[in-house]
Amino acid sequence: MVGTARSAGTPALAFEFLALGFIQGLECRDPWRSRGAGNLEAPHDAAGTPIFQRIKDFLVAQIAAGHWKEGDVIPSEQALVKQFGVSRMTVNRAVRELTAEAVLTRRQGSGTFVAPQKVQATLLEIRSIADEIRARGHTHRSTLQRLDQMPAHELLAKGFEVTAGHILFHSIIVHYENGVPIQVEDRWVNPQVVPDYLAQDFTRVTPSEYLLATAPLQAATYSLEALAAPRDIADMLAMDARQPCLVLRRRTRSAGKVASLVTMWHPGHRYQFAGSVTTGAHA
Fold first, then answer.
1. If we measure between CA atoms, which residue out of 170, 136, 168 comes closest to residue 154?
2. In the list 35, 67, 70, 130, which could disulfide-bond 62, CB 3.0-4.6 Å?
3. Quick one: pLDDT at residue 43?
4. In angstroms, rounded to a whole number, what is the distance separating the alpha carbons of residues 3 and 7?
């Protein structure tokens, strides 16, 4: 059994890292300095890994382990220099690269913080946002802001391929991931396709889940753009109105009719879309 000890003045995080380095078989207790080189800093550790990369790995490991959470300030560059016995330039490179990779975020005059994690959704598959959140191992909840019916104005009627004044159902719902708002869903629904829409409890089932179960999808079209959020949307997403939103608009058809038109607002600093396409060999 291997034991380690630390002096009363050694920071806990430094001790954890040095112990990890020892367990991994590094040749010296301080992997950031070359042996016999005095105060000269080696560009790589004993395993051949660039020193700045090892600092990056350590910072990321602290975040992944939950020691530093979203919004937490990390130690200053000067503190990291002292902790690891390296130059300011080396620490700065590690922090700068993690900032560029959106792992950290810098605030002038305040320090460096753990950046918000961007959640990811697919553009090529229509599924419930609740399923996406649960697939990430997180908790979904929603709040209902509006659920009523209104006559369609001319532009909305055109989207539904009906005449102006046609009655449509309307819902506005805010979706949360681990308590953080990540989507405002502003949806219009055709009563001719989904007559019982207003009778649903959308805090227990999402509109997407209900519509996919009751109005089988025939076709869908969508568009994606970045827009500044209106004040009411920004308030529901708990964000600054000057920050951009990723706005997904989608129209779905079922039973030969337009079933739903939905606009989904996502805070750009907390959300991203991704997808992939696989084609056959003879496509």
1. 168
2. 67
3. 64
4. 14
